Amino acid sequence: MPSPGFPGSSTELAGVGEALGPRFTFYSRATGTLAANTLESLPFAERGDALRSTLRQAPFWLDVTDVTHSEMQFLSRAFAIHPLTMEDIQMEETREKCELFSNYYFITIRAFDQSGRDGAGPAFMTPVNFYLVIGRDCAITFHSRHLPHTANVLQRIQQLQAFGLQMTPDWVNYALIDDITDSFMPSLRFVELEVDAIDDLVLILKENEQADMLRRIGHARKRVMQLLRLLSTKADVLKTVIKRTGERLAPGSETILYLSDIQDHVITMTQNLSHYEKTLARAHANYLAQISIEITVASNRTNDVVMRMTALASVLVPLNVITGMWGMNVHVPGQDADSLGWFFGILAGMFVTAVTTFYLVRKAAQIL
User: What residue intervals traverse the membrane (predicted)?
Assistant: First the structure.
C-alpha cells in the first residue's frame, strides 16, 4: 500500500466529536508516538513536519478507536481501503478472517474487554473486534473501545529499538496478535486452577459443604465456553495470515516463525480448554451421581423406618381388635367368675396372637 497524504483539508473532518482519551495513535520511527482525540489534531505541526511528508516517511502505524462514518470515509480515500473492508469495520463484523486485497490484507480478530480481570467487571470477557489493515508500508488498526494492546505493542517497540528493531507493518500485525493471544493466559490459568479444585472436591466434600458446588461448576463451564468461542477460529485465521505474509516477506524473515509460534500457542490453549470442558462435564456427572446416591440412601433409610413402623402396627392391630371388642357392651367370658383365670387367659391369648403376628410379618419380610 502506498503512503499517500490525506486528500483535502481539515474541513473534511468537521463535526467529528471529541472522545474521552486519545482515539488516534500514530507511530513512525521519524515522529515517535503521537496521540490525539481527532485525526486532524495529531501534533505533526509541532515537530515541523507537514502531514503529507510525515506519512510518506514509511513505515508507520495508525491506530483508531471508535471510528466515525466521516473518519472512515476519509481514511478509505486516503489509503485506498476497499468498500467491503469499510463495511466490515463499520458493521463490526464478528467473524474472524483474513482477506487479501490488491494493496493490503485485512484481518479481523477478536479480543475481549479486560476491565475487571478478577471477573467482577460487568463487561469482562465481552468480545471486542480488532481490525487490522496491513499494507506494505503502513498498518492501520481499528477497534470500538479502548484496549491495552496498542499501548503494550508501543511499549514493546520502544524496548526493542535498543536492539535494532525495524518496525514494519507485518511486525505490528504479529505483535498485536501476539499480545491479544497472551491476554488470554491469565483467564486460562484461572480456569485451570478452578477446574482442578472442582475435580478434587466434587467427591470428597461433606454434604453441608456442597451447596455451591453446582454453581461453581456452572460458572467454570461458562468461562470455558467464553474462551473457546474467542479462541476456536484463531488457529485457522493465523494459518491464512502465515500463508499471506509468507508471500510478501523476504526469505528468511523471522516473522513467519513468530506467527507460527502464536498458532501453536492458540492450538495448545484450545486443546487445554477442550480438556477442561471434558473434566467439568465429568465432574458435573459425578456430582449429580453423588447427589443421586445420597437421595437413594436417604430413601432407603426412610423405607426401612416405614417398614419397622408397619411391622409394629401389624403386631398392635390384632391386640387393639381384641381389647376393643371386649370393651364394648357385650358379655365377656368369665366376667361372672371370681377368679382371675379368665383375665390371665385373655392376656395369654393376646400374647400368643402378638408373637404369631410378629413371626408371620418377619417371615414375610425375609421372603420379600
Answer: 309-328, 340-361
